[in-house]
TrEMBL record:
Keyword Nucleotide-binding: no
The organism's taxonomic lineage, starting at the top: Eukaryota, Metazoa, Ecdysozoa, Arthropoda, Hexapoda
Signal sequence interval, chain numbering: none
Protein name listed in UniProt: GH26 domain-containing protein
Domain of life, source organism: Eukaryota
Domain GH26: residue ranges: 54-372
Stated family: Belongs to the glycosyl hydrolase 26 family.
Gene Ontology MF term list: mannan endo-1,4-beta-mannosidase activity
Any single Pfam family the record assigns to this protein: Glyco_hydro_26
Annotated PANTHER family: GH26 DOMAIN-CONTAINING PROTEIN-RELATED, MANNAN ENDO-1,4-BETA-MANNOSIDASE E-RELATED
Keyword field: Glycosidase, Hydrolase
Any one Gene Ontology BP term: substituted mannan metabolic process
Length: 374
């Protein structure tokens, strides 16, 4: 029904022998991510957190309007906090973009947990720090901040993972089970994250908060199970619970300055199968790495059908195109084929615009809104 008749606004099965409870897969019908049940009916353009502050609500309204106006905010990723490396957080991307284009990106990003690092057992929160004073400075200039994570794995003490860190569903479930070591680590991690996000709240700064990205891939501990699709229905259920757990934790901490961004990977299926529900998401998007700047993205219409503002939450060149990728052609591709996108954010390092070609055309495209132009 949903696939063939997407304009339908409600459905009503009859009772008796024709009713869902007398037939099969009622769970699938009423737990479909595109179905709104009792208690869930709020405008998809309302903030997921009804208690969001006025500034946060206004930003969501502005972003929603951009999709209707065929305009898009520029972005750049500043790097990983707590990581001293070329891809560690700095203002290099913003400064480099300004030098080459005379523009600054409207959106600036930071990842606050380099989850490939290890630490002493019991000190997993040492791998997390979501606050940086340069983020505050950029926001005070009118920038919009987005925060993401490469979370440490709470199942393993000190983030010392076994092999690639892939979790069984049984292991995954322990993160949600009171009294387990994994649950205790996860609670401490969420507390540390909340501390950083509250520091932005205290400065009056709204955050585009993008946890658990690329969950439909199989390269992160929170994502799909590699090479075993039979287990991924349960993984999708557990993922939704984990997202909702994080959402409710931050909401109960009074963090009313967050807009929640859901961004699966465009190269894999099941893009909406992990969707935790309209009441837990403000913005949807795709992470898109490609060799060909004129290629088509997978999942644009699928994500748009959720009714939320859409973004290219993480983009860049892939494989042999890194270092000579035509970002100018890429942005023309985006604005012409995907006009509902409200922002784009290239990553840093060798995938960044300043390390590739035709950056001027990106930040000077007439449909792109840069810092100070919103």
């Amino acid at each position: 029904m949903i696939a063939h008749y997407p304009k339908a606004v409600y459905f009503m099965p009859w009772n008796g022998i024709t009713g869902p409870i007398q037939n099969k897969n009622a769970w699938g019908a009423y737990n479909n991510p595109k179905v709104i049940n009792m208690g869930e009916l709020r405008s998809v353009r309302s903030t997921a957190n009804p208690a969001a502050n006025d500034k946060t609500k206004k930003l969501l309204s502005v972003l929603s309007g951009l999709g209707d106006r065929d305009r898009m905010l520029s972005g750049a990723f500043g790097g990983y906090n707590l990581f001293v490396h070329e891809i560690g957080f700095s203002m290099e991307q913003a400064n480099g973009i300004q030098k080459l284009t005379n523009k600054l990106p409207t959106i600036y990003g930071m990842d606050c947990s380099p989850g490939w690092e290890t630490t002493e057992d019991g000190h997993e929160t040492d791998l997390i720090d979501c606050f940086h004073p340069n983020i505050v400075d950029y926001a005070k200039k009118g920038g919009i901040i987005t925060i993401s994570h490469h979370f440490p794995n709470p199942v393993y003490a000190g983030n010392k993972v076994d092999g690639k860190g892939t979790l069984t569903n049984t292991q995954y479930a322990t993160i949600l089970q009171d009294g387990t070591s994994a649950r205790n680590r996860w609670l401490k991690m969420m507390e540390k994250i909340a501390t950083g996000l509250k520091a932005y709240k205290d400065q009056g700064i709204t955050i585009l908060y993008r946890p658990f990205h690329e969950m439909n891939g199989d390269w992160f501990w929170w994502s799909a199970i590699p090479n075993d699709q039979s287990q991924n229905g349960e993984r999708q259920r557990l993922f939704k619970l984990l997202w909702q757990d994080l959402f409710n934790f931050m909401k109960n901490k009074g963090l009313d300055n967050l807009l929640w961004v859901y961004s699966p990977d465009q190269s894999r299926d099941s893009k909406t199968a992990y969707y935790p529900g309209n009441n837990y998401v403000d913005i949807v998007g795709l992470d898109w790495y490609t060799v060909d700047p004129n290629s088509y993205v997978n999942g644009y219409d699928e994500l748009l059908s959720l009714g939320k503002p859409f973004a290219f939450a993480e983009v860049g060149p892939y494989g042999e195109s890194q270092g000579h990728f035509d970002f100018g052609l890429f942005i023309k591709n985006i604005v012409s084929r995907y006009p509902k996108a409200v922002f784009f954010m290239p990553w840093n390092g060798i995938t960044s615009p300043i390390k590739n070609n035709n950056i001027w055309e990106v930040y000077n495209n007439p449909k792109v809104i840069n810092l100070g132009e919103l």
